Amino acid sequence: MSYTIPLFDLNFDEAEETAALEAIRSGWISSGPKTRDLEERFASMTGAGHAVALTNCTAALHLSMILSDIGPGDEVICPSLTFVATVNAVRYTGATPVFADVRSYEDLTIDPGDIERKITPATRAIIVMHYAGFPCDMNSIISIASRHRLKVIEDACHGPLSEYDGRKLGTIGDIGCFSFFSNKNISTGEGGMLITGDAGLAERCRLLRSHGMTTLSYDRAKGHSTSYDVVGLGYNYRMDDIRSAIGLAQLDKLRADLERRAVVRDLYVHHISGLEGIVIPFSGHKGFVSNYIFPIVLKDSEAGKREAVRQYLATCGIQTSVHYPAVHRFSLYEDINANLPITEYITDNLITLPMYGRLTTAEIDQISAKLSEALKVC
């Protein structure tokens, strides 16, 4: 189906083309100087002590589990309202995910109260996911983790530069994980970043992302080293310099794009806050956030009505999505007993509307008007 208003619009222009071409012409296209530059700039922009570029956020989440010494017999508390990679990372290590509910229809982040209820002697860590770039209640979560001696991993793939009490998301827990997938605020096609304030964790992460080798190919090619040791069972999770060069161009645009997204969100809220039958999550939030997506939740609804509303919007040329199906309902995780009534209602009745910096006032007017029509006829 062809859409006149797509869900997402890639924020690329000649800057990304030039950056990729320069990397290709440099003669070095695998992990090298551009990747190091990206790591340094990302660490500086977030206020993190250390940043390690990786193939994707899934790799970052996987390594965060390994760096936290998670393994068979351990439990990790996590949301079900997230992309499945958040939870798969737990299973990669042989540990067991334990699902906690979200706070409410107005706040789609993990509920600290339910986290505490789900803690057992086997619990070793908590993964939070900052939904749409809006922060979880990190003060409460860090307090819980401190009392129970648990690691806190922040899945901040929705939230580059989002803030919580003056700190950037990803820098509050032990490890922060970011995605540079094609539809994220920072787009490199594939790619991700792990950040931490712990120098030892960062160094161990660099070893694990490259087969456990003590030197990189770039170092050996430049004569800085002619040999290497393998000191751990690592992976091939390196990010290449072509994508890193694109990432640097994206970082140049990031703040301006997020500021424009904030304007788009305000326009949406102004236009649709009076509509009967919907909840706008995070509508009262005042802090600076990335606004990765714009979700709404239908009131007094069920999955069939949600799909009818989406279909109505699609026939009007407006693309929508659902972020996300509940992970605990997937066949892979049906063996886990999960009581998540709020998550289940939300995943049946949430609609993701188009969100990107280039959305015009006229397009938001159109989306709002068609949404109003859909709510009346569906």
Key attributes of the depicted protein:
12 helices; alpha/beta; 3-stranded antiparallel sheet; 7-stranded mixed sheet; 14% strand; 378 residues; single chain
Uncertain residue ranges: none
Helix content range: 25-40%
> What is the strand content?
5-15%
Q: What is the CA–CA distance across the termini?
A: 21 Å
The radius of gyration computed from the alpha-carbon positions, rounded to a whole number of angstroms, is 21 Å
Order of helices and strands: HHEHEHEHEHEEEEEHHHEEHHEH
Strand order of the largest sheet: 1-9-8-5-4-2-3
- Name the quaternary structure: single chain
The total of helices stands at: 12
> Overall 3D geometry?
globular
Major sheet attributes: 7 strands, mixed
Please explain how this structure is put together.
The model has no long low-confidence stretch (mean pLDDT 95). The chain has a 7-stranded mixed sheet, with helices on both faces. With 378 residues, it is α/β, with parallel strands linked by helices. Helix content is 39%, strand content 14%. The longest helix has 32 residues, at 241-272. Helix 2 packs parallel to helix 9 (241-272), helix 3 (57-67) runs parallel beside helix 4 (85-92) and helix 10 packs across helix 12 (361-377).
Quick summary:
This protein is an alpha/beta fold and 378 residues long. The protein is built from twelve helices and twelve strands.
Indicate the topology.
Blueprint (H helix, E strand, L loop, with lengths): L13 H12 L7 H14 L3 E5 L2 H11 L7 E5 L5 H8 L3 E5 L11 H7 L4 E7 L8 H11 L2 E5 L7 E2 L2 E2 L6 E5 L12 E5 L2 H10 L8 H5 L19 H32 L5 E2 L14 E5 L4 H13 L25 H9 E4 L7 H17 L1
Parallel strand pairs: 2-3, 2-4, 4-5, 5-8
Antiparallel strand pairs: 1-9, 6-7, 8-9, 10-11, 11-12
